[in-house]
Amino acid sequence: MLRLSGLTLPLDHSDDAMAPAICARLGVAPERLRGFTVFRRGNDARRKSAILLVYTVDVDIVDEGEVLARFAKDHDVRPTPDMDYRFPTRAPEGWSGLRPVVVGAGPCGLFAGLILAQMGFRPIIIDRGKIVRERTKDTWGLWRRSELNPESNVQFGEGGAGTFSDGKLYCRVKDPRFLGRKVLEEFVKAGAPDDILFEAHPHIGTFRLVTMVESLRETIEALGGEYRWQTRVEDLELERAADGTLAVRGLHLHNGDFLEADHVVLAVGHSARSTFEMLHRRGVHIEAKPFSIGVRIEHPQAWIDEARYGKFARHPILGTAAYSLAHHCANERTVYSFCMCPGGRVVAATSEEGRVVTNGMSQYSRAEFNANSGLVVAIDPARDYPDGPLAGIDFQRRWESLAYAAGGSNYNAPGQTVGDFLAGRASTQLGEIIPSYKPGVTPTDLSTCLPEFAVEAMREALPVFGRQLARYDHPDVVMTGVETRTSSPVRITRGKDFQSLNTARLFPAGEGAGYAGGILSAAIDGIKIAEAVAASITRER
User: Fold this and answer.
1) Burial letters for 267-287: b for 16+ Cβ neighbours within 10 Å, e otherwise?
2) Within a 10 A sphere around the Cβ of 255, how many other Cβ atoms?
3) pLDDT digits (tens, 9 = 90+) for 449-505
4) Residues 263, 507: contact at Cβ < 8 Å?
């Protein structure tokens, strides 16, 4: 098989147009083509009057070697890579050592646990939150009744923060082993639609993610894994060797129990602030990391569809339109769109009382009236929070608390129209665009709960984005604040063996450790961590 990339066809091409296009591109007679499968499908909408579909296809062709030799200098014609996942090791027969423990049941912890279970290591997975169905009820409690459960919410519980998101399943990390393919295939087995295997920008949405994480839990348990819910890690038990190095020996849990463990995966997510504080107190190597701060911005989805696709807006193949924007400002800040959710809603995402945090989510259908995205400004420790490894957490808390006060101290989000924001005046009412955030939005002045440099940068960027995407800066467009949890504010630094720099057999992983940036990248990191844990166990046996 050979892989042909960059094959373009008109948006409304017929089903039988693919084979002739492949033959024409490769310069072969039709009878040499034995078959093909679509590996990926995207679109090129740079010319809205002539949108193209862009395919990557795996081709079975007579005399493949001749074709590959003829296209040796063409990077779009290559042998189809081997994408099958192979376990690097298995638990030794009769293995009865201490079971590895995975802390956190988000995408990273979920796949660390799954791979360890598939290799026969019977992991124990603990999470401070609840199973996904109970967690969903608690999350609705905040959205519908302004009642926050600090241990069961958008951030904590089965599925992690990704459960209440757009469910995007693509990322920009290098993946030479095609671990992302393993993730997608496991998701399909768990109930995801098959199209996530070939769409260039696949997504699932919250409702489907709920059933999928339940199915993956059942798989892990059937393989000997064990879950412990509503179990928060209070402390680490560490031993110090003669050379001063640390090694993990177990976990002290919030209920007073001690869980002996000599291989611990920390997949705690980007909001596990008490865990970060404990790790720092215990001397585990941790450092401040860049993240971003800003707001959620909402437009009617129809506006985005028309701006991106013109007359082809709402075409069934194209679906709801997304966008990606960035601008480098005069104050040396970068403003960019983040976690864009077509046909979705803005959600309350705090995990601490007395604070307001926004995020975006959507369902698989992406059928909500509004599109939303983070409109955020990049920040970094040296410039913005230089006072130690945990200073980014303090930075987040400050603006989240101010947002809580600006919204009315009842978990309403502070909101402002773009017209008022650009004019530097507080909003007293909103325009034609109805914000989707629940429990509610309070019109106010967002500059009271954002850093001055961020306000300045966003005021510069909005008109620029309006020239790139029609009506982006329309006066009635609504912004709600604050968006602070774009990524982890810390990095729990690890070495090439995936273990903490100064604490043996402690494996920091995923978004919370600063090594991932979304569902797919976190799940890929979980696979790598599981392999490292398994290698360590078998090496020490």
Assistant:
1) bbbbbbbbbbebbbebebbbb
2) 9
3) 999 999 999 999 999 999 999 999 999 999 999 999 999 999 999 999 999 999 999
4) yes
Q: What confidence score (pLDDT) does residue 541 get?
A: 65
* DSSP structure class, residue 256: S
Residues written for the chain: 541
Q: Which residue has the tokens 């990322």?
A: 171
Q: How many CB atoms neighbour CB 331 within 10 A?
A: 12
| pLDDT at position 164 | 87
Low-confidence ranges of the chain (pLDDT < 50): none
DSSP string, 172-213: -S--TT-HHHHHHHHHHHTT--GGGGTBSS-B--HHHHHHHH
Report residue 479: phi and psi, to 5°. -120, 140
Answer yes or no: are the C-beta atoms of 512 and 267 closer than 8 Å. Answer: yes
Instruction: Give the pair of three-digit tokens for residue 287.
Output: 């450092």
Q: How far apart are the first and last CA of the chain?
A: 41
* Residue type (1 letter), 528: K
The alpha carbon of 371 is separated from its chain's Cα centroid by a whole number of angstroms, namely 18
**pLDDT score of 203:** 87
Name the 3-class secondary structure at 410.
coil
Cis upstream peptide for 482 (omega within 30°)? yes
Q: How far apart are CA 232 and CA 253, in angstroms?
A: 6
- Both tokens of 116, joined, read 């360890």
Which helix (H) or strand (E) covers residue 217, if one does? Answer: helix 206-222
Q: Is 333 exposed, middle or buried (0-12, 13-18, 19+ CB in 10 A)?
A: buried
Please tell me the predicted confidence (pLDDT) of residue 482: 98
Question: Model-level pTM?
Answer: 0.95
Provide CB contacts within 8 A for 83, sequence distance 6+.
178, 181
User: How many whole angstroms from its chain centre is CA 473?
Assistant: 27
Peptide bond preceding 439 in cis form (omega within 30 of 0): yes
What CA–CA distance (Å, rounded) separates 357 from 376?
13
HSE-CB for 523 with a 13 A CA cutoff:
29
CA distance 287 to 501: 11
User: What is the spatial distance between Cα 417 and Cα 443, in angstroms, rounded to a whole number?
Assistant: 8
Q: Is residue 168 within 8 Å of residue 362, measured between CB atoms?
A: no
Residue 79: what pLDDT? 97
| H, E, C per residue of 19-44 | HHHHHHHHCCCHHHEEEEEEEEEEEE
Q: Is 329 helix (H, G, I), strand (E, B) or coil?
A: coil
- Mind spelling out the 3-state secondary structure of 57-120? EEEEECCHHHHHHHCCCCCCEEECCCCCCCCCCCCCCCCCCCCCEEECCCHHHHHHHHHHHHCC
Residue 539 parent element (H or E):
helix 519-540
